[in-house]
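User: Before I run my own analysis I want an independent prediction to cross-check against. Here's the chain; please return only the structure tokens and, at the end, one sentence I can use as a sanity check.
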Amino acid sequence: MSVRHPALDAQAGGELVTETRAEIAYLSQSRAELLVTAANEGRRVILVSDEVTRLTYPMQQVLQDMRGCWVVRELGGTLRDGLGGRRLSKVSDVLDDAPIRDRDDVAVRYLRPAAPDTLQLILSQSVRHKAAETTLLGGTAEIFGEALTGSAPTGWGPYEPALRRWNRQELTAVARARAPEDTTLVVSGGTERRLNGTIQVSRTADGLEENTQLMLGVGALHSEAAARAMESLPGTFATLAAHHMPLFGLVMGRTGRQDLSLEPLLAPPPAVLGMLIGPPGVRQLDLDVPALAERFDARVVGRPRIPGLYFPLGGLTEPGWDRLNAVIDALGRDRVSRILDLAGTWMESGSAR
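Assistant: Structure tokens:
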């Protein structure tokens, strides 16, 4: 790196190391700048921490988006990959991206997670806007926050902690001032039922694309609040389609911590719950809306003239990956991958093969 960064603790060749002993590693200004600068130079950042450190959802997102890694130094001095559990001989081994081939490749401590206490919903939803003075961003986060946690986001900002009071006009003004550069902002909210995530805004040939990534704690396991949140998903996606122009979305569920932080331990696999193909996707794929709605018990959303489709896919006890594969096959796997760019989000993850 041409200029030494205050968050950089060591470097050797392509290896950039930043260390923390904090209980929570969040997306601070310093860490965000280091990750972006390294990515622009074609280099990768390794976050090194103790076992007690947990990542916030935005920190995890950006670390992975920038091809960063997380190395955990265990109490006995041994090392492991904080995201995958692979045993490491030295810190730089995490850059090899070597696959796990045998159970002995995985650190024993990684396989002993704490008991989860909260149902978490993980949302990825993109929306198209006109590049107009009247455009207002943040609607997706507001709709899903209110429906699933009981309140809209309370804070936003360029980094964590998101200390600015939730204000969609101010959020939009920041993204507009940065255009045509992409803008990534952090959102947060809630106390008992929390919300945390990012909003990314990009200028495209069709206007603006707002991609919202949220993790929402919707209640204690088996609680009425969690059950209501699950039941409200189809109606919430319908509300989104009634007020915005959604492109595509995916919602998954898993169990985890109430504070939504990620431990360097094996997490329960997420269950896919629902998928939204918005009006632009329906039009581009030339879908037979009535036939698909009948075949997959999908909900037609949006305006009658330009409808979208919400596909319920499963629940926590009945993960919907097989049903998702059936839907994608019916839509045309190659066409879905090419037109909606789903290959990078689902198929390459191995969840929708």
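Sanity check: Residues 29-40 form the longest helix (12 residues).
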